[in-house]
Every structure is written in C-alpha cells, then in structure tokens.
Amino acid sequence: MKRILLTGLTVIAAAGLLFFPVPANAIDHQKMDKIVYTQSAVDLRNAMRQLWEEHIVYTRNFIVSALAGLEDTGKIAERLLRNQDDIGNAIKPIYGEEAGKKLSALLRDHILIAADIVKAAKAGDGAGVAEGQKKWRGNADDIAAFLSGANPGWSKPMLTDMLYKHLEFTTTEVVSRLSKDWPSDIEAYDKGHAHMLMFADMLTDGIVKQFPKKFAQ
C-alpha cells in the first residue's frame, strides 16, 4: 500500500514560503524593472523575506516532525499557523484590515490542508492524499485570485504558477522522506527555500510599483 501511495505522490509531484538583508546599493535596478529601491523599500523587502522564510522553514519542521511522530509536532503546527497570521497582519497597513484577515484565513487553510495530506501520506491513505492535493490546488487558486485582485502588478497566472511550484517542492519533500531518499529531500527543500524568497521578492516588487509614493524615501 505504501508503495502505491509513494508512486501516486511522485506522479503528483512531477506534474506539478534565512533572513538575508539586502543593501540598497546591492540591488540591480535593471533587473527590478526600473524599481528604485529606497531604504523603506529595502526594509519592506527584508521584512517580507523573513515572513515567507518562516513559512518555508516551519513547514519543513512540521513535515519532519509529523512524519517522524515527534513530540513537538503540535507546537510546530501552532508556530506555523501563527506565521500565516503574521503575513496577513503585514499587509494590513497597505491593503486594509479585511484584506489582511482574508489572506491569513487563506494561508491558514493552506497549512491545515497540508497537515491533512501529511497525515494521510503517513497512514498510507492514497485516496486521502489525492483529495487533499485537489483541495490544496484549489486553495492556491483562491490565494492567487485574491492577491491578483489586490494588486494589478501580480498577475493571476504568474501567482498560480509560483504557488503550484511551492506545492510541488513541498510534496517532493514528503515523498522523499517517506521513501528515505534523503538527497532528494534535501534538494527539494533547498529549491523550495530559494523559490519562496523569490516569491517574497515578487510581492515586494508589486507593492513598491503600486504605491511608489509610499516608498519614495
């Protein structure tokens, strides 16, 4: 049964969020599509990176602890969910109270669905994994729709692609750990980590473009 589950997860994966301060003078402005990064914009960039790195790091910690049945699994889950609230709170000064609450709710669903998938995978429940993956992609679609509606600089297809890629990397981590393929597990995490920082930078770029006066100094 476990072999069947691993095969299914591998097919899904194949089909298919470290705080690094960035000095203002280190930004390649040409690659940033003529965005002038003032100190306030750099501060936003670093804050956004820290939040989304916590997302990817605590997701990783949860996968490791949940699959191994470690005692810290519940506390890791609590910390991971708190990160989703932190991300929502971070956009409230820009997009408003309700928008922040909405994003937090969508991201909490993202984590709760992921937890169900990990639980089903560990139990060898292939049907549960498939159902969870369907809900997970639907949630990613909802997040992409919400964000693209808030900022015209964040296109829905681009966001969807980025979020699906995040799901793919995370799925590969679960698959690899279940099969004890440690090199693949590490590679998936490394790639997913870099991808999440790129996602954070994309969000920052969109905010700075949308509100240039807010980040003029």
Protein described:
- It is a single chain.
- This protein has 217 residues and is mainly α.
- The protein has one domain (37-210).
- Helices cover 79% and strands 0% of the residues.
- It is built from seven helices and no strands.
- It has helices at 2-15, 39-68, 73-95, 97-123, 126-150, 156-178, 182-210.
- It is elongated.
- The termini are far apart.
- Mean pLDDT is 87; it is low at 1-32.
| SSE ordering | HHHHHHH
Average the pLDDT over all residues and give the rounded result. 87
Distance between the termini: 59 Å
β-strand number: 0
Rg calculated over all Cα atoms: 18 Å
Percent of residues in beta strands? Answer: under 5%
Residues in helices, as a percent range: over 70%
List low-confidence stretches.
Answer: 1-32
Q: Structural class, please?
A: mainly alpha
Q: How many strands, what sense, and barrel or not for the largest sheet?
A: none
How many helices?
7
Supply the key terms.
7 helices, 217 residues, mainly alpha, elongated
What secondary-structure arrangement, pairings included, does this model have?
Elements: H1 2-15, H2 39-68, H3 73-95, H4 97-123, H5 126-150, H6 156-178, H7 182-210
Helix pairs in contact: 1-5, 1-6, 2-3, 2-4, 2-6, 2-7, 3-4, 4-5, 5-6, 6-7
What does this entry show, briefly?
With 217 residues, the chain is mostly helical. It has helices at 2-15, 39-68, 73-95, 97-123, 126-150, 156-178, 182-210.
